[in-house]
Amino acid sequence: MIKVGEKVLKEAKDFETVIDLHAHLGLWSLFHLNDPWEDHIIQVMDLLGIDKICIASHAAIGVDATLGNQITAQAMKRYPQRIIGLAVINPHRPKEAVNELNTCIKKNGMRGIKLHPSMYGYPIDGRGFLPAFKYAEDYGLPIITHTDYAEGRSGAPLGGSSLPFSKINVASPLRTVEVAVKFPNVNVVLVHSGHNQEGHQLTLEAVRDLSNVYLDFSGTERDFGLIEEYVSVFGASRVVFSTDMPYLDPRSALGRVTFAEIADEEKAQVLGLNAVRLLRLEKDKETNS
Amino acid sequence: MLEGIEFVDADCMIGPWPMRNLAYSSSEELMKQMDRYGIDRALVFHSLSWTYHPEEGNMALKRILSEGIIDKQRLLPLYCFVAYEALESKALDKYQVRAVRVFPSINNFPLTSWASGEFLELLVKREISLWVDIFHTEWTHLQETLITYPELKVVLLGAHYQDNRKIYQLLKKYQNLYMCTSYFEAFDALRYICDHIGAERLLFGSRMPFYDAGAPIWNVLRSPLSLREKQLIAAGNLYRLLGKKERSDD
């Protein structure tokens, strides 16, 4: 709890379940990461009151899906109660997708599929990602996919990256929503919800009537009042908490929720209850009991 | 105060914005937001200094602060200048400043000794700190300023986590550089900077009204820092730059 004037605000530790739905693991080429491995990440989670974290390693999202999925699986084995793996596919190798997903999901116990169109320089609505959506539909898995928006600009919307963000808007919210329309039984989480102010507004317009689309507010473009607007327009059941750790500091996303002018019940949904539903974690509880 | 720590916002704007409606534009509305977040005071500049001309923004800011309908103690002015125009008009005398902000790319002058040297020398002479957003200048110009004017205290705004390799090197090499945390969200970075560079070089800021203030507040409050480190980042370093004592003691 923190006292702000006359008000007392709950923080992550005061909520029953806090699940980070989108995070990573490992080194990265573009910038320095301060010990980005699982031991440090778990230490930070303990400090801040984050119970579980969904990870797709950095290697998986933009370098080599198979290598990266193995790194994720190793971390899951070390912290099975804390780390939930997300499987990644390379859209340029669609024929390998089902095998890769079988290894990740059936063998290694990952609970969702993470896609990164920008890193792979491949449009989210292209044929290369179709196997992932079909697999998600068959097995009831959520798709957690990066979105960004940079109209008229080639290159990186994320700030001058040397990485292969070479295609314009391969991960735009509009394209992503079009795929979500084709797969109404697949829950799709729009990571960053378009990433910048223009992208956020596009997202708001694009997903109004889609009950299978969820909004993630992570990212450095933390528009003032964004969480309140999303909760007001879509309801708290459609907004999810994620940190993008260890790219970003998890305190940023937690601080935004802590100070957000929404009800505590809504914060509870955003911070964890929605993720429990999306990842089907209730079934684990039932099985364990 | 938040958990007994005074917070003074080092990156904050008031005034209208042409591109969209922002969360607030008036000083009264800003102070409501400050109350909501537990921010005690804010160093503010006026949006007209950015979008129109620094002097127009300065006059608007001065008007607001002299109106007397707001708690003046809570808002500290950050006046903005075009380097050589400020010399010609003797604007620094007019506003009695301890800190100035510049928008080199917006006002189309480079932050270099050939274009801004006399202005920067005057800042050094009068112990006035310089505030600049990296979006409004270039890394090489920033470095040149730091090395050419080692006694000039420069506050870097708009520092982005993806630039952290450049930022850490500049902070290590140039003791006259300070960084505002308002846009800097690198993983566990405040602890890292305090360990490798020192808490004295960081200033808390929100980037309101564009951005949410909860993130940078939580980065200070919930990072594994000592109470003294938190106090320095939240307010102490800014007060030192402004020549003020801590805890609002003017």
Structure at a glance:
The complex is a heterodimer of chains A (289) and B (250). Chain A is an alpha/beta fold.
What keywords describe this structure?
heterodimer, A: 289 residues, alpha/beta, 12 helices, B: 250 residues, TIM Barrel, six-stranded parallel β-sheet, three-stranded parallel β-sheet, 9 strands, 15% strand, globular
Fold blueprint:
The complex is a heterodimer of chains A (289) and B (250).
Chain A: E1 2-4, E2 7-9, E3 19-23, H1 38-48, E4 52-55, H2 58-62, H3 65-78, E5 83-88, H4 97-107, E6 112-115, H5 117-120, H6 130-139, E7 143-146, H7 173-182, E8 188-191, H8 197-206, E9 213-216, H9 226-234, E10 239-240, H10 250-259, H11 264-278, H12 281-288
Parallel strand pairs in A: 3-4, 4-5, 5-6, 6-7, 7-8, 8-9, 9-10
Antiparallel strand pairs in A: 1-2
Chain B: E1 8-14, H1 27-37, E2 41-46, H2 47-51, H3 54-66, E3 75-77, E4 79-80, H4 83-89, H5 91-95, E5 99-102, H6 104-107, H7 113-125, E6 129-133, H8 139-148, E7 154-157, H9 164-173, E8 177-180, H10 189-196, E9 202-203, H11 214-221, H12 227-241
Parallel strand pairs in B: 1-2, 2-3, 4-5, 5-6, 6-7, 7-8, 8-9
Helix pairs in contact in B: 4-7
Describe what you observe in this structure:
Chain A has 289 residues and is an alpha/beta fold. Chain A has one domain: Metal-dependent hydrolases (TIM Barrel). Chain A is 40% helix and 13% strand. Chain A has an 8-stranded parallel sheet. A two-stranded antiparallel sheet of chain A has the order 1-2. In chain A, α1 (38-48) links the parallel β3 (19-23) and β4. Chain A is globular, with a radius of gyration of 18 Å. In chain A, 56% of the residues are buried. With 250 residues, chain B is α/β, with parallel strands linked by helices. Chain B is 44% helix and 15% strand. Chain B contains 12 helices and 9 strands. In chain B, β8 (177-180), α10 and β9 form a beta-alpha-beta unit. In chain B, α4 (83-89) packs across α7. The radius of gyration of chain B is 17 Å and the shape is globular. In chain B, 51% of the residues are buried.
